[in-house]
Amino acid sequence: MSFAFEAQNLEGKRILVVEDDYIQATSLADAIQRRGGHVIGPVPDVATALELVEKEGLPDAAVLDISLGDEASFAVSTCLREHGVPMLFVTGYDDWFMPNELDDIAVCQKPMDAENILRLLLPLRRG
Fold first, then answer.
1. How far apart are CA 2 and CA 25, in angstroms?
2. The pLDDT of residue 113
3. What phi and psi, each to the nearest 5 degrees, are found at residue 33?
4. Is 87 within a domain?
5. Is-contact 125 3, C-beta < 8 A?
6. What is the mean pLDDT of the chain?
7. Which residue of 45, 86, 98, 106 has the fewest CB atoms within a 10 Å radius of its CB?
């Protein structure tokens, strides 16, 4: 699997955003769009995220908030991983909260800065 987006450019890339905090979701979506990417979502819960992936197809990459109200986004990450979609997590929790099978996925601590998230996201690409 290769990992390379053009530096500073998400042109034509479809990025799934799963985040239940409106302000953070909007900030991240705006940053993706400014770099030419297409935002899938943002969506605030697992069911909607999975429905959106089924309806719109697999994204090129994803940013997933781990804690979505009373649920975790691990079902979404499992689905995406089965199809080779690169992703990163954002969370306010320590790493111990991560299941062992997902410990190789990058984790960004909140509060998140959309530009820092994109710096980590830019090298990722399905392919």
1. 27
2. 80
3. -65, -35
4. yes
5. yes
6. 85
7. 106
Instruction: Tell me how far apart the alpha carbons of residues 109 and 65 are, in angstroms, rounded to a whole number.
Output: 10
In tens, the pLDDT along 39-88 reads 999 999 999 999 999 999 999 999 999 999 899 999 999 999 999 999 99
pLDDT reported for residue 99? 80
Q: Which residues pair with 91 in a beta bridge?
A: 109
- Please identify which residue in the block is written with the tokens 């062992």: 100
Q: Is residue 65 part of a domain?
A: yes
Does 42 sit behind a cis peptide bond, omega within 30 degrees of 0 on the bond before it? Answer: yes
> What is the count of structural domains for the chain?
1
Q: How far is CA 21 from CA 43, 60, 99, 111, in A?
A: 10, 22, 23, 11
Q: Structural domain of residue 49, as residue ranges?
A: 14-121
Which strand (E) or helix (H) includes residue 41? Answer: strand 38-43
